[in-house]
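Re: Re: ligand-bound prediction request (bumping)

Still looking for help on this. To restate: I need the protein modeled with S-adenosyl-L-homocysteine bound, output as structure tokens. Inputs repeated here so nobody has to scroll up.
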Amino acid sequence: MNFDFIEQYIKTHQHENFRYSQLVHAVQKGITTWDGVLGWPDGLKNELQNIIPFTSYTASQVWTSTDGTKKALLTLQDGQQIETVLMEPKSGHWSVCISCEVGCPMNCAFCATGKMGFKRALTAEEITDQVLFWRSEGNEVNSVVFMGMGEPFHNTKSVYQAIDVLRDIYGLGQRHISVSTCGIPAEIVAFGEKYPQLNLAISLHAATDPVRKELMPIARNHSLEEVKQALLTYLRTTKRQLMFEYLLINGVNDGPKDQQALVAYLQAFPKQLIHVNLIRYNQTYRGFEPTPVSRVKHWKQWLITHSISASIRKNLGMDIQGACGQLATAN
Ligand code: SAH
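Reply:
Sorry for the wait, this slipped through. Here it is.
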């Protein structure tokens, strides 16, 4: 749903202003057809039907995991495809993982999306329609994480417009919207100034530059020190808790030296404002192996012993290739 277009259209075509609120109500209920907008005269429905599609996707396919997680493949107007995931990380709390680009330009060594290359950025409408899609299927959506395909800080214009729509129209509380980034320093600082109430997660994955550069090409442009300074500025502005994501890959970034480097890196941050989320590597056919579960648990214990709050991410949707880093489309 392209809200800006419709708002303008209603204003400039002498329709009553409340027609726009009626549309907003319809979308909040998960309606995805012009015909379904309650209260609209047939004339207006027909008019719009001929001008603009209601949703930015034309087809959808859904897979359901044995753990209840659902993954949808949405085909966009130009034939490109994106994936979005609906999961229940806590009982009764439904979270949608949304994509912000078709493919991703960051090309992290371990990620299936990166392997697809970068096709194009999504519009704000294509981003928010992922939430509309799940609602239209009768699902509750309580929170949104920008952890699907793409790098949010590589498409800030659409991502920021989408955040405003999710907050103002879809009614999601700012504290229920999280953005995850591979770490672009200037954008981290700008995000903190613009959205101090949202959550930020940083995909760290290594605490020394050589290992990080091997895994994440973006690290060749921005050192860990630069990222640290940006995060500290972010924390001074927002005073919000910051989440570090650390993907554990067997024999690559999960040894004792890596553990020590992580604890050393985190010393610069106020302990009460940071949390480390350990992610066990999900298979993506990129030639890496996951760290054994016992070592993942050891990492968590090690961090906690060093007074760093830590948890292990539940690997939801693995059997449907819907888990972190597994999102990729064929064409
Ligand atoms: N580009 C953003 C948003 C993607 S979020 C970012 O980098 O943060 C997707 C999360 O899943 C990131 O933390 C990413 O590093 C992680 N991830 C990528 N590949 C993975 C894999 N194979 N197994 C587990 N997590 C993976």
